[in-house]
Every structure is written in structure tokens, then in C-alpha cells.
Write a structure and sequence with these properties.
Blueprint (H helix, E strand, L loop, with lengths): L9 H12 L11 H14 L2 H14 L4 H13 L3 H14 L4 H13 L3 H11 L6 H14 L3 H14 L4 H13 L3 H14 L4 H13 L3 H14 L4 H13 L3 H10 L7 H14 L3 H14 L4 H13 L3 H22 L5 H13 L3 H13 L5 H13 L3 H14 L4 H13 L3 H7 L5 H7 L1 H4 L22
Amino acid sequence: MKDRFKDFDKEVRDLVLDFERTVMKGERQFFDVDELEVIIDYYLEVNDQKPLEEAIRYAEYLYPDSTEVRIRRAHQMIARQEVQPAVELLEQLRRQEPDNTDVAYSLGVAYSAQEQHERAISLYEEALADGWMPGRVYSNIAEEYYKLEDYAQAIAYYEMALHYDPSDEVSIYNYYDTCYLAHRLEQAASTLTDITKKDPYNKHAWHVLGLAQRDLGLLQQASESLQFAIAIDKGFVEAYVALSQTQDMMGDTPQAVTTMLRAMDYTEHRDRVYRTVGNLYARDNNFDTAMVYYRKAIDENPADAEAFAASAMCYLHTGDLPSALASIRKALGLEDALAEQRKDEGNAEVYFAAALVHDAAGHFDKASECYERMLLAPNCNETQCQAYTQFLFDHRLYDILTDFGEESLGLYPHDLFYSTYLAASYFYTNRYNKARKMLPDVSAELLAEICPEIAVHPLLGPLLPWTENPPEKGATP
């Protein structure tokens, strides 16, 4: 059984257990206000709502005028998404105690939940006045700038947060994600290298340094950094996964498989390990072996929608379309139930596989629906978006494609893939002037492949940025 106090010290454990042995059973027990704050903070941290409510009520009964207890009531409201009542309570406390930095910090949390990011930043800045946990406050400010898509400011504040608390794993991972989006991975690698030099046993810093090095193409360095993370904590499953991915990128599939199987002894999620091994073999076009591991994943977890989706892709690659359809229907049924349970938009990997299978089966409407659901999922990636673009083009849905392509170019300016498909779509819908404007940013070879007519068009063909001799007039590329 998992120890619910694993990340808490003995004082917290003793106080919480004492509270549960007495007050939670209807007995009267005296706790001073500081002790009750510790108890409430524990339940807030683990998000255990029933005893949290009991603890706050008991604290309000004993200390009805305590500002700190009322602040914690506000945090409970925020956790319950009752944000406006929390704001009203905290604003009342702010009027009573305008210099209370705890109130300012909590108001920052509340306004952040209302997506009033500039206001939250201002309040967090106020909270810095007494020097209380600057690492956490700087990290919160960084998160607000991240939400505002001001990545330069977010990076600067994450670096300040890490200066004060280099062991804060949330700041480390958020810093890496922000640098990735801002195309500043060299800066991330430099900062994380400095952290590992000062704290060589910081496993999260080594892990994220390895991720940055991997994404920079420094695969040998990434491998070494990830092995350091594993040496520090042999049960660090995420580091095994990243190391396996790196070894796969280095072309060493057998070693990548061995690394993943080493993680088996340290995780409760054996299905994920088996599925990841299956993915490694599938990417190596060894579909028979991949299926062995996908079946192992399903045996471990019969509700593993991703494993069923991956199995469907294996069947598709081997030409067994009926089995692919059966597997993908199972995957979609499971994923729909999981998404409802998680209250999210689902897993893009499952919907992507479903779209490919249904498209191959000629089920256009079902494939379209799956692509649309894929786009809503939070883990939808660029490869999947490009496949959707090709799907639209192949089915001559040029109007939808132009809207999607223009939106994609807003995210990835001058991207040759989207520019090329947009130019072809404009051409096929007789918008020659728009097609002409795209030509400086297209791949001439790809455009000639998907839209051969444009290459020999008397006005547009000569404008293509050919790297070799263009086709002769009247010729088919």
C-alpha cells in the first residue's frame, strides 16, 4: 500500500493522524492554530476534500477570526472552482490587512484561476515583499507569463525561481517546456548544466538536461545525462523512458528495448512499459514482435486504449484491415469512457490511429470525425496535424484545408509543408494570386508531386524555387 505521508515529515504525519483519531470521529481535541494550519495544508496538498472540509470547519470553530484559516478556506474554494467567492473573501481580508503578503499571494492564485494574469502577476510581486518562498512566487509569475505567451519573461522568471530553489521539479520541467516553445533549448541546456554542477545529485535536472540535449540532437550527451539521472534514482521510470527514446533515435533498437524492460521492476504501470516496447518494434517495422508486446500490455491492463490503437496500426500495416477495424473500435470505446472519467478531450494518439484506419477502410465520415477529435486533444502533435492536412488534400476538401493551413502558418510561419499544401489548394480553387504569394516559401519538389499542373502552368511554373532544372513546358513532373 502506498504511504500517503511519503512526501511529508513526521510532524505532519503525527498531527494528521491525531486529527483523524479524534475530531474526525466526533471527539473534541485541542489544536493550536498553527497545528490546524499544518493539518489543513496537508489535505489541500493531497486534495482530500472530505477531511479538508472537516479540518477547516473545526479551525473556524476554534479560531473564527484567524486570517490564516480564512485564507485556507479561500484556497479550498479555488480547488473546488468556486473562484469568485474566494476572490470576494480574499478582497475582504485585503481591505482589513492591506500589508498581509499571504493574502496578496492567495489573491494572485485566485485571479490566476480567473485568467486575470496581469493582475495575478502584480499581486505575486507584492507577495515577494517579505521574502517568503521566492522560488515558488517567481515560479508562479513565470507561469502567468507563460499563459500570456510571453515566453521570454516566463523563461527569465523560471530562471530566478531555479536560482532560489534548483530542486523544484515543477519549475525545472516548466522551464524546459517554455524554452522548447521559445526555441531556446541551448539556453535551457546551459542553465541545467549549471544546476547539475552545483547539485550533482539533482535527478530532475539531469533528466531535463538529457531531454534538452536530445532535442538539440546531442544524442550521446543526452544518453550520458539520462544515465546519471538513473544512477541517482534507479526507480526513475521517466528517465528510463527518455533514455530508451534516445537510444532508439541513435538507431540502437535492441538497447532501447533493454532499457525499457529495466524499468519494469520500478513501475506499477507495466502496461505502459510493454506498450512502449511495442512502439519501438513497430517503428522498426517489426510488427509481429510489436504485437506480442501490445498483447502483453492489454493483458496487464484490458482498458489500455492506446495498446488497442497501436495494435490496429500493426494490423493496418500488415494488410489485415478487418482486424484493424475491430481493434480500433475497441480502442475508441475505451478512450471515450476514459475521457469522460478524466473530464478531458481524450488522447490524440488513439483518435489519430482511428482516423488512419477508417480512412484506409473508406469510412470518410468516421475518419473526419476522428481527426476533428484528435485536434481537440491536448497532446495533438505536429505530425498528426500534417497527416490531417494530407487527408483534407487527398479528399479535395480545399476550403477546410486553406482555413486549417492558414491557421497552422500562424503558428509555424514560413513552414514549407503548410505553405506547399496551401499553394496547391489555392491553385485548385482558382485563387492563382494567393497561390503565387505562397511560392517563395514552398518545397518545389513536393508541390510538383501533389500538384503537377502548377509546375507547368505558364505563369506560376516559372516562379517556383527550383533547386534543379524545372520541367519543360508541357512535360509532366
